[in-house]
């Protein structure tokens, strides 16, 4: 708990500096997340297997007596204080990162929960920026949790996830699935969440790593194309699904077994769409098998499925890119690496690896050196722990 106490003090100090004092200020936390396996399946009606992390977003917030909203981020100090109010909840480019909390305020109102008063908010995230560990979803869930706490709205953590996704889709225009917000809102220490995105049924699976660590390798490649490519992949999968539905009674690609897909893939004329759909089908099955392997204590099999996931994302879904491929291929060369794959949307961002504790240092040295040599700039590495969901500190 000590780390979060330090963070709490840090945001309270900044709050006093920005807003003059720290009377009646509450501090909240929402985690970041990493997806262990099940990538680009969440909008294809498949399974995902994310976990919340102990790093995330801290927010110091205070209710106001008027309708003003004043936002400040310690991660973007150059931007300074951004002011708006509850009567102007629209996404403006110059509003920058504040479009995430504003989107949540907007979404609560859209869902019939009128927000009676504004707030002052200072945020600090210790999630690496642009890393693909979901800093935006973390801010969304955090804001929703603050609103629930401030105004007593009758919403569950699952509702907060759905409101976060709704605001990202409709307010911020990113066509994301439910996974990020769900993993963050529903996080449980020591457990990953086996989520069926088709119906939001989920179970918690204990992650027993028996002397291994989860290591995140951050490529430091700034994602520019991510969102446009993301929406493109979605429409390729939707087109493939429409062709398959001519003969199959299915709601999503996640409904298919590998054998059914192989039998009917001829219905999809476009070879690119065939590859996209194949990834969605096989990745969903891999995720189900990975959770069974973990349950049986077979970490080696879990690692093999992670590796196969990366190959499919590289060859069939084509969302990895040189940076992520270099991180993963270098990881595979190291003794003590159980599995390694890209995680998140791709085109930059991070990889997730399961590495035996005694090999972590070698892993960071060797993969780091090879990456710098091949890519020309450094990667960052984080050994992470699995944490719980949003809370008031």
Give an overview in words.
With 393 residues, the protein is α+β, with helices and mostly antiparallel strands. Helices cover 42% and strands 21% of the residues. The chain is built from eleven helices and 13 strands. A six-stranded mixed β-sheet has the order 5-4-6-3-1-13. Helix 4 (157-170) packs antiparallel against helix 5 (179-185) and helix 6 (226-244) packs across helix 8 (271-295). The mean pLDDT is 93.
Q: What's the SSE blueprint?
A:
Elements: H1 2-19, E1 26-35, E2 47-48, E3 50-63, E4 68-73, E5 82-85, H2 99-110, E6 119-125, H3 135-151, H4 157-170, H5 179-185, E7 191-196, E8 201-206, E9 212-218, H6 226-244, H7 258-264, H8 271-295, H9 299-315, H10 321-332, E10 337-343, E11 350-356, H11 360-375, E12 380-384, E13 391-392
Helix pairs in contact: 2-3, 2-4, 3-4, 3-5, 4-5, 6-8, 8-9, 10-11
- Globular, elongated, flat, extended or rod-shaped: what is the shape? globular
Radius of gyration: 21 Å
Strand content: 15-25%
Number of helices: 11
Q: What is the topology, as strand order, of the major beta sheet?
A: 5-4-6-3-1-13
Q: What gap, in angstroms, lies between the N and C termini?
A: 10 Å
The tally of beta strands, per DSSP, is 13
Structural class, from secondary structure content? alpha+beta
What does the largest sheet look like? 6 strands, mixed
Low-confidence parts, pLDDT < 50 over ≥5 residues? none
- Overall pLDDT: 93
Helix content: 40-55%
Write the H/E string, N to C. Answer: HEEEEEHEHHHEEEHHHHHEEHEE
Attribute tags:
four-stranded antiparallel β-sheet, alpha+beta, 13 strands, six-stranded mixed β-sheet, globular, single chain, 393 residues
């Amino acid at each position: 708990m000590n780390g979060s106490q330090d963070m709490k003090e840090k945001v309270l100090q900044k709050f006093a500096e920005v807003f003059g004092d720290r009377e009646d200020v509450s501090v909240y936390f929402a985690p970041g997340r990493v997806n262990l396996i099940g990538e680009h399946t969440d909008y294809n009606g498949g399974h995902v297997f994310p976990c919340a992390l102990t790093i995330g977003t801290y927010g110091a917030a205070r209710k106001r007596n008027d309708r003003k909203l004043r936002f400040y981020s310690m991660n973007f100090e150059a931007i300074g204080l951004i002011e708006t109010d509850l009567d102007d909840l629209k996404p403006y480019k110059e509003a920058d990162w504040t479009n995430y909390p504003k989107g949540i305020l907007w979404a609560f109102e859209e869902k019939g929960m009128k927000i009676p008063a504004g707030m002052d908010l200072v945020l600090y995230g210790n999630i690496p920026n642009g890393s693909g560990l979901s800093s935006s979803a973390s801010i969304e869930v955090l804001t929703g949790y603050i609103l629930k706490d401030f105004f007593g709205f009758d919403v569950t953590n699952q509702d907060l996830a759905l409101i976060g996704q709704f605001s990202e889709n409709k307010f911020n225009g990113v066509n994301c699935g439910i996974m990020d917000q769900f993993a963050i809102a529903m996080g449980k220490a020591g457990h990953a969440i086996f989520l069926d995105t088709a119906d939001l049924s989920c179970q918690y699976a204990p992650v027993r790593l028996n002397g291994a660590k989860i290591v995140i390798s951050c490529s430091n490649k700034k994602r520019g194309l991510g969102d446009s490519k993301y929406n493109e992949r979605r429409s390729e999968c939707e087109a493939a699904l429409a062709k398959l539905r001519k003969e199959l009674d299915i709601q999503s690609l996640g409904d298919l077994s590998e054998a059914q897909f192989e039998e009917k893939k001829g219905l999809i004329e476009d070879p690119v769409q065939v590859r996209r759909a194949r990834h969605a089908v096989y990745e969903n099955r891999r995720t189900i098998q990975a959770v069974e392997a973990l349950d049986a204590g077979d970490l080696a099999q879990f690692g093999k499925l992670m590796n196969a996931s990366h190959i499919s994302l590289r060859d069939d879904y084509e969302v990895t890119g040189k940076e992520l491929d270099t991180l993963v291929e270098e990881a595979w060369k190291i003794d003590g690496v159980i599995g390694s794959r890209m995680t998140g949307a791709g085109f930059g961002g991070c990889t997730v690896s399961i590495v035996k504790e005694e090999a972590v240092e070698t892993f960071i040295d060797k993969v780091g050196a090879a990456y710098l040599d091949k890519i020309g700039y450094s990667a960052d590495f984080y050994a992470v722990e699995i944490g719980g969901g949003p809370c008031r500190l």
